[in-house]
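Many introductory courses stop at the sequence. We go one step further.
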Amino acid sequence: MSDEFVTAVENLVRSAPAAWLESACEALRGCPATAISGFVLQRLPSTNNADLPFLAAEVVRCAAGRISWEAVSWALRTAAATHRRSQGEGYVELLWSGPSPPDRIPARRIDQALYDLIADAKREVLLVTFAAAKIRRLTDVLLAATRRGVRTRLVLEFEQSSEGQLGYDALKAFPPDLIDSAEVFHWPAEKRERNQAGRPGKLHAKVAIVDDVSLVSSANLTDDAFNRNLEIGVMLRNGEFRSALVEYLSGLIRCGCLIRLDSPRKGANRG
């Protein structure tokens, strides 16, 4: 089989959620060996991931007329199993938003990685951000996760706590139903060091922890960061790194550096 087909399979497996990929493999196994590409693509499951139709079409194009669709299904399942094994051994993936070099396949988008991780979340989601705005799709998948019983924690910056260095509370980007079911934390102004001008430090970290996966990036949870800014990040499946990150944030909560809001809908009333 050609290197082009192998690359197409790898790209699809890297980006596709496990549930979607399993459904796609089942659909491929049900396609007659003589089926044309258009018929096969129509049988694949729908998705909100804008990258998957393009990546799946590349696999189908490379395989058409060369191997059976059942064989394509087994190639995808084998590659997916290998990919999962590599993730368990310390998988690291480059993430990006903004322009990509024209001579290479773009890295996966930061926002798409977040959507896929949260859509598959089973236990917990923890998000840390400076700013948040215009993120309807992200809040939709977060709300769906909380309704499945996934524990959701948000560590956010506030206008008053930052003394005007953030002009719009990050909390305002999240709908009331999500706020009611999530645990929301902030960094009180009195807990922050100040510069020579008297301005407090900012809660500027951008981190996501979803079950066993950690995502660290330069991107705030905003429409600009997801769609227009040039941002970079990494997604890691590494137990030691995740444990250290969780313990660090948990330690800030235990020592009172990060405080849980009792009434998140009212915002932070912090000096």
